Amino acid sequence: MTLEFEPTMACPGKTAREIYEEVKANPARARFGFGEKLAIVNVDFQQAYTRPDLFPKTAYVTNPNQIAFANQISALARSRDMPVVWSHVAYKGDAGDAGVWGTRTDTPDSLQNIKYESDRHAFDPRCEIDEAVDLVYTKRMPSAFFETPLASYLTWHKVDTVVVTGGSTSGCVRATAVDSLSHGYRTIVPEECVADKHESYHFANLTDLQLKYADVVAVQEVIDWLEAR
Question: How far apart are CA 147 and CA 71, in angstroms?
């Protein structure tokens, strides 16, 4: 016997932004909340993704104050002796370390063509990075946890809460947030501090993060928590 079902969707006719606003206004899950010590994990604030004036095919802007907000909460965390982390992505000249991910396309704007020490690999000059204090490293895959020093670094610093910023919301931010939860961290995503190429990807993934993997909050909530420490 073959059972046939018509395709159904929970919110037909609504945009990703509208669905996100409904979920935000009517939370259906308990919050993870803040613990005792957080780390700010700033994911891939590099020019390939933040400078549409230089790289219009790959860069994107959702909130024009995104980097300023990330700088603000990073400075507050630093002043409270809480870790600040910056990742960016790049590959060696022949892309031999890109793995299967690097096989999808091969154009000048492809992921595997972000080379070490290139302009696309470089952090956006607006990022206020303290090289003497912050953990800064290059990663190869979406998650800031995958084959990086991040997990052991957070363990050493007795962190129980991870605040994820950067881009893209649907890619490296989401992957990092899922891995953060999987590692046992309370995971928080400040809405104004993440971005994506299109609002549909951005808001659909904020909705999914809020429902499953993280607390999606206004950045002011992170600022208030840090200022109160």
Answer: 26
Spell out the residues 6+ positions from residue 60 whose beta carbon is closer than 8 angstroms to its own.
Answer: 49, 52, 167, 168, 195, 196, 197
How far lies 47's CA from each of 105, 117, 188, in Å?
Answer: 20, 12, 24
**Domain residue ranges in the chain:** 36-227
Task: List pLDDT tens digits, range 60-78.
Answer: 999 999 999 999 999 999 9
Set 11, 127, 172, 193: catalytic member: 172
68, two tokens: 């300023």
The beta strand positions in 48-115, using DSSP E, are: 84-89
Name which CATH class applies to 36-227: alpha beta
Both tokens of 93, joined, read 């000249």
**195 pairs with which residues across the strands?**
167
C-beta of residue 43 within 8 angstroms of C-beta of residue 167? yes
Total-model pTM: 0.94
d(CA 209, CA 168): 13
- Determine the length of the chain: 229
Q: Which residues of 27-42 are buried (b: 16+ CB within 10 A; e: fewer)?
A: eeeeeeebeebbbbbb
Cα dihedral: 204, 205, 210, 214 (round 10): 180
Q: Is 172 a catalytic residue?
A: yes
Each residue's pLDDT tens digit, 104-150: 888 888 989 999 999 999 999 999 999 999 999 999 999 999 999 99
